[in-house]
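Notes from the pairing session

We agreed to fold both candidates in a single pass and log them together. This is the raw record for the first candidate, unedited. Please don't reformat it; downstream parsing expects exactly this layout.

Candidate A
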Amino acid sequence: MIHYFKKAEEGKKTFLLLHGTGGDEMDLVPVANMIDEGNGILSIRGAVTENGMNRFFKRFSEGVFDEDDIRQRANEISVFIDEASTKYSFQTEDLIALGYSNGANMIAAMLLLKAGVFSQAILYHPMVPLSQVEGIHLEGTSVFIGAGTNDPIVTGENSKRLYEVLKENGADVTISWFYSGHSLTKEEVIASREWLSSHSIT
């Protein structure tokens, strides 16, 4: 997979970055550095293209996802993470997953498909990615959801539903609302930085 990697400083963790539709592996690097510049970075470019735009999985229309493709792509990313951890010498359990929009949806799907895949996740403007999940136990997983009150793509109801799905399956979930649309704001990044600081795992 096309990706960018930066080694973590001594004693620091590593961010897994998944961009939004039309982005690439460098889009969220400044965001990760704003949250914690000492952390390492493994940032992946989505392998699916839609009208020339990079994505992490296929969709049939706006907000209507190809769930079979989500499951396939989630598995491919999991395999790549394991390979990258060997190549770059980082611990997969130290990963902090961070995604925006389409990338956040993929991280949410990975959480729901494989309990314990990430112990911490920051999701900016995500949606519920899968219609059905069963037998997932997310105890020990902490998730930050950033949502816009005027988001034209992700409704408030959808944001709340993802919060509920994760919480019902045992995750420690925080949802923060911002008077914004679908764009990622500095205020949102700062809030996620403060959340991560208060949920630090050593």
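Candidate B (folded immediately after A)
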Amino acid sequence: MKQKACGAVLIIILFLALDQALKIWVKTNMMLHDSIEITPWFYIFFTENPGMAFGIEVLSKPVLTLFRIIAAGFIALYLHTIIKKDYHFGYIVCISLIFVGAIGNIFDSIFYGVLFDHSVGQIATFMPPGGGYETWLHGKVVDMLYFPLINAVLPEWIPFWGGEEFVFFRPIFNLADSFICVGVCILFIFFHNTLSKSLSKQEKGTEEEKDDTEETV
């Protein structure tokens, strides 16, 4: 169990460091919407996400950040539980990846508005004398990984969209997002039975606690 705990901590530290190192490099070397072509289908394209996935803004920024912190807290608690119960290490790795992805984006939301000035028309400065571009909990998440695997113009004969540009894959994301996606995909492909049993045990344990409380009352 101790080895699995150390492995989970190592994964979290290493992957969080990679996520933040790339974000800080992009933030301090590129202006907003700058692009670096790595290959014709892979670009480092600097953008900032003010809201949830794909830039959707449903909640106010502080509320969204607090929601993310609470969600990460539940993931951390679950990770501690499965390590304590000596689950398969592969399953622990998946939950660790999801957790590190969550806290990677939380770090941006909490600190980046204070640590950096804005990137519009300039390269941001770390710890600027005049202060950051926002206050605590109002930072924007840095995204940069862009994979336009297909970039073409649709044929004119296609109704409604004929002649328009078609790009696949259009979303721009970061390493933290990819950690979450990889963790979730591996979880459902290789550990779906373990996940189902784990959630069933959690639900059963909650019901037993409720029954014990009612009996005590």
